[in-house]
Design goal:
about 375 residues, alpha/beta, Aspartate Aminotransferase, domain 2, Aspartate Aminotransferase, domain 1, 2 domains, 7-stranded mixed β-sheet, 5-stranded mixed β-sheet, 12 strands, binds pyridoxal-5'-phosphate, Aminotransferase class I/II-fold pyridoxal phosphate-dependent enzyme, Cys_met_metab_PP, carbon-sulfur lyase activity
């Protein structure tokens, strides 16, 4: 019988603590050694082996949160994703990857895969049929993102997992936007879950890290590549990440609650023409989101009406910051057409639904009334 999962906040607070047996301190000590004894030890520890005490123990928390046997922590989200791809794809293999995806992942695939003879196809959409249509004989991995950046599309995770299993193809998901607080893809049949821990795991815009959670077997295979590539996280930062993750459940639940309220409010706002949020009944995949997510997340996007300048709008905001990154406790906004999708032509952007009026909104923990007031005063200042 598998052990029952501890509740969310208990897991965040306690799983993976290192007991301070020497001084009985309340929190995990930091072990900064980069050199450990190798004689008569069970584990040969070394930072680049991803197995210092702090790395090993924080991995237990992440595995518990994603309901997996094992997990690994990396120096960034891109390190996590690149190591995962390189562990399961080699020359002549083929990756099927969702068309709407984090920009860095798209760049990595396009720029690096050709050098190693790895083939890939981006889907034309995110329905099951779109994925089925591009599977080849040599497809080894299907990678999805749901909710996706920046239009919050929802992919049917169960259907993709089933498709993979039926064809003996592994499946992976970027679960950064939902976080394990709002979505556990392993329970829906996905093989591997990755995170940019720079985002909700860190949560305070002061850590760059990544993580993968999966079975022991898959993590071991990734480890075999990672020990060669390097890219482990320093133990100082691992410790900071552990501290941050104690409040992951509290933070993300509060942010999710705020996002729901703001999405509803923005949806009725006369100066906002469209809101993208999977928790709105008007979202085309609302029912699917409801069936596979525990909460709808704290990321949303909206479009200002045509005669309002979106850049000026962001300059006028006083409380909400414009920021490249996301998922901190502070609310931030970003223009996808000037950042993640700046390299596309206006026509290409139009095709994927990214207008100059689009604003991505990472909702923080502030009081909703203060966020509403800030948005309203910025709009008022534009006239
Ligand atoms: C930020 C992000 C990444 C990349 O993570 P880094 O920590 O910046 O390397 C990957 N996926 C998503 C969805 C992200 O938001």
């Amino acid at each position: 019988m598998p052990k029952p999962h501890l509740g969310l906040n208990t897991t965040c607070a306690h799983v993976g603590e290192i007991k301070d047996k020497q001084f009985k301190g309340a929190v995990s000590p930091i072990y900064l050694s980069s050199s450990y004894e190798f004689l008569d030890v069970d584990v040969k520890r070394y930072p680049r082996y991803f197995n210092t005490p702090n790395q090993e123990y924080l991995s237990k928390k992440i595995a518990a949160l994603e309901h997996t046997e094992a997990a690994m922590i990396f120096g960034s989200g891109m390190a996590a994703i690149s190591h995962m791809f390189f562990a399961f794809l080699q020359k002549g293999d083929h990756l099927v990857v969702q068309n709407t995806l984090y920009g860095g992942t798209v760049n990595f695939i396009k720029e690096e895969f050709p050098k190693y003879g790895i083939e890939y196809t981006f889907t034309n959409g995110h329905t099951l049929k779109d994925f089925e249509a591009v599977i080849q004989k040599n497809t080894r991995l299907i990678h999805i993102e749901s909710p996706s950046n920046p239009l919050l599309t929802i992919t049917d995770i169960k259907a993709i997992a089933k498709l993979g299993k039926s064809k003996n193809i592994l499946t992976s998901i970027d679960n950064t936007f939902a976080s394990p607080v709002n979505q556990n893809p392993i329970d829906l049949g996905i093989d591997m879950v990755m995170h940019s821990a720079t985002k909700y795991f860190g949560g305070h815009s002061d850590i760059c890290a990544g993580a993968i959670a999966s079975s022991k077997e898959h993590i071991e295979r990734i480890w075999n590549v990672s020990k060669n590539l390097g890219g482990s996280l320093s133990d100082m930062t691992v410790w900071m990440l552990e501290r941050s993750m104690k409040t992951l459940g509290l933070r993300v639940k509060a942010q999710t609650k705020n996002a729901m309220k703001l999405a509803k409010w923005l949806n009725k706002h006369p100066k906002i023409s469209r809101v993208y949020y999977p928790g709105l009944k008007s979202h085309p995949e609302y029912k699917l989101a409801k069936s596979q997510m525990k909460g709808f997340g704290a990321m949303l996007s909206f479009e200002l009406i045509d005669d309002l300048d979106s850049q000026q709008f962001q300059n006028e905001l006083k409380l909400i910051k414009s920021s490249m990154s996301l998922a901190g406790i502070e609310s931030t906004v970003l223009s996808p057409h000037l950042t993640s999708h700046a390299l596309l032509s206006p026509e290409e952007r139009n095709k994927v639904g990214i207008s100059n009026q689009l604003i991505r909104f990472s909702v923080g923990i502030e009081e909703v009334k203060d966020l509403k007031r800030d948005i309203n005063q910025a709009i008022a200042a534009l006239k």
